[in-house]
Amino acid sequence: MTVNEDAFTNWKHREEIAESMIPIIGKLHRERDVTVLLHSRSLVNKSVVSILKTHRFARQIAGEELSVTETMPFLRALTTLDLGCCQVDLGMLAALYKADDRGLSVEEFTAEAVAGATGDQKIERGQPRDVVLYGFGRIGRLLARLLIEKAGSGNGLRLRAIVVRRGAGQDIVKRASLLRRDSIHGQFQGTITADEATSTIIANGNAIKVIYADDPSAVDYTRYGVKDAILIDNTGKWRDREGLSQHLRPGISKVVLTAPGKGDVLNVVHGVNHDMIKPDEQIISCASCTTNAIVPPLKAMADEYGVLRGHVETVHSFTNDQNLLDNYHSSDRRGRSAPLNMVITETGAASAVAKALPDLNARITGSSIRVPVPDVSIAILSLRLARETTREEVLDYLRKVSLSSPLKRQLDFISAPDAVSSDFIGSRHASIVDAGATKVEGDDAILYLWYDNEFGYSSQVIRVVQHVSGVEYPTYPAPVA
Question: What pLDDT is attached to residue 57?
């Protein structure tokens, strides 16, 4: 057999295994609320090729490719266990098993690794929690996609309604079309129909009521069967406690803001300070996309090396706040054409660090440049460390953080030498360390952090909503603190 024939035969074999994984992954998700991951990347509702590509991507972070032949035995082992609601990372299972020298079988090792999700300790499936989206723009529609995707088991979070101002003719049809097709993030994965007679969008079987209102005080959500819901405000119109409290109408019990909160509103970066949310807190902010991008790696570096001071320069994609062509704008420079210019502007991300990391005794400054790309940004984080180190040590540390620490869902790692911004469209991590661009000299470190300022941020928002709703299930094997 020639090399080419051998490679093709190997591919077909792995393709067959990946194909057999799909119904197992789907059944675990639908029947038990078990989400199967591979190095923090969900394998639920993925195609054969997507599963194989996710396995191959492991070499970017773990240093070597992972084969479906290695992970399939662990997946089969999961089906023999009485699992409760949880997430299971096959990549972590395979890596830990390889390093284990006790001679356990795959079945024995798997049962031990996920013991917290079985028996008396397992989490039983509860009733779904209602969610309402107030605003249906860029972030609102991506949140809708994520909520619909995560409703596959019929439990957890359930998108019940969106609140918008009434548009001109065919409002429902046009909003459904914007959810169905996205110029950046591609087609919606599923089916969408619009029922104008009942003002309802039906997406993958989820009936989403479209409520028309000009302000929060005009809505009684109980009229639409909504109860004890979490409302996500995507408009950014109200950012302090007084303004956001207007949403606490009949049917709404908590409000989550997708913009930096003002005053005493808690700014939350999931993975870093979400444990500061009090059970009775009704108003929460998810800070900004840039704050979510820089705080996790900043915490990681501060924990290991100490940080004396820092500066973040964000090179940010343009947004709807800017003008398509030169026109009046209330802010300096933002009136100039977004797709034709680099625009120097301000960022509040640096000052927001203090709210998310109150124990960090370091001054962090920041500035921003908007550039002519529609999505994905990069934060250049320049740090003065409390001790000297080397580039190799920092990269090895950040790689481990991305693989097995409590920050592994927030911080990703890539070593590809030719990676560019469009490669990170759709990333669900808050930020991605670019190993090739990282610079370290003595006590000075410069990290280049990619982030999908739309989808990555929306994923962080959903994690906060899952946490406050009580449907944020534990991951096994447990991350290494």
Answer: 80
